[in-house]
Each structure stands twice: as structure tokens, then as C-alpha cells.
Design goal:
about 100 residues, mainly alpha, 4 helices, elongated
């Protein structure tokens, strides 16, 4: 059920009311901004939360990870974020067609 709730532009567009309302617009803008900030701090490599997580791991283990390891972890994080975006767009297309 959680996978079906993932969406992208179509889902965001459906949140806007049919008639223009400035208060609703600014509330939705603030909501989207807060959601982006929250998502950015998730411990997913490539995002800020991932860098914080890697730094904490380096502090706990007291050794620095090599640049090659960090590059590979960030590549995995990139593909994970790309897959999430593709899932959101796919769900929007499915909702639009069916």
C-alpha cells in the first residue's frame, strides 16, 4: 500500500484546489519545502543525511573511508534515489491511465 502512495508531479498537482487560493498555495509550498528538507536528511548516500551518516561512522570507527568506497556508496545512493523517482513517475502514469 505504501508503494501505491508514492507519486511525483501528478500527485503534487492533485493536491492543488481547483480554484486558485493564495493561502492554500503558500501552505502547499511550505509543505513541499518541509518534505524536501526531511527527505534530504534521510541517511541515504548522496544526500546530506548520507554524508552525516558516513561522517558519524568515521567518528565511531576512528578511521576514514577511502574516496573509492565513498564514491561507490554514493553511486548506490544515486541509483536508489533514481529508482524512487522512477517508481513515483510510474505510479502517476498508472493512476492516469487506470
Amino acid at each position: 500500500d505504501g508503494v501505491k502512495s508514492v507519486g511525483s508531479f501528478g500527485t503534487i498537482g492533485s493536491l492543488f484546489p481547483a480554484a486558485w487560493n493564495w493561502a492554500a498555495f503558500w501552505q502547499l509550498t511550505a509543505f513541499i519545502s518541509l518534505m524536501l528538507a526531511f527527505m534530504n536528511f534521510l541517511p541515504i548516500p548522496m544526500l546530506d543525511g548520507g554524508y552525516i551518516f558516513i561522517t558519524l561512522l568515521e567518528m565511531i570507527t576512528r578511521r576514514r573511508f577511502s574516496d573509492k568506497v565513498i564514491e561507490r556508496v554514493n553511486t548506490i545512493g544515486f541509483y536508489f534515489v533514481l529508482a524512487l523517482m522512477a517508481l513515483g513517475i510510474f505510479n502517476d502514469v498508472v493512476k492516469f491511465i487506470f
